[in-house]
């Protein structure tokens, strides 16, 4: 079994199932924090899928897209924490 077979037949299905499980948490999340964490995990898992696809197709330009998504996810998490802090001050 080569690296490409391992990535294609083992890693991608695991990432796909994890996205489905995280999406269920995103829908059912009782609080806003649960939904934001689930969205951050979906983006992180998507970055993993993009990285595996980049390795599988031997096109490193997709890694630039993954890096941009990681920056957007980080900024979203920072903005959410800033929002929560502002909301706690106003209460």
TrEMBL record:
Pfam families: MrpF_PhaF. InterPro entries: MrpF/PhaF-like. Keywords: Antiport, Cell membrane, Ion transport, Membrane, Transmembrane, Transmembrane helix, Transport. It is a multi-pass membrane protein. It is found in: Cell membrane. GO terms for cellular component: plasma membrane. The chain crosses the membrane at residues 6-24, 36-56, 62-84. GO terms for molecular function: sodium:proton antiporter activity. NCBIfam families: PRK12599.1-2. Belongs to the CPA3 antiporters (TC 2.A.63) subunit F family. This is Cation:proton antiporter. It comes from Anditalea andensis.
